[in-house]
Amino acid sequence: HFVPRQELLPEKRLVWMASLHKVSGSEPLERQLRALMPDVHVFGHTHLAIDRTIHGIRYVQWPLGTPREQQGQTRAPSMGMMCVYDSAEGGEQPQHWTHWGRHYEEFERDLTITDLPYYMQRHPLGRARLRTSSTP
Asked: What are phi and psi of 129, to 5 degrees?
């Protein structure tokens, strides 16, 4: 159920729940996965859709969540159940487009950038995070 590696999450500055990284990413779980080298690892916990391959392992999180959570996360016509493997269709199914998967195909993770993105600075929750982070 838990996210096995931090690289499967957007950087802390890009997510509304900044504390999400404190409960995500498990080095012991990731070591087990690398030892087993499965074709696919399905996980959950963060409600952020992602379908991405890193070091030969395909990681899939396909949250069903609420329609609001689903909006903008994928181009699938419906966020219903995702078929990852179908023996009648030739085995493992192709990766699905997800917002964060696509983002990290185009951009490297850069943990040195800590400024909130513009869209978050304009939002009340983002402004509250800015006030909290600037408090001595």
From this structure: -65, -40
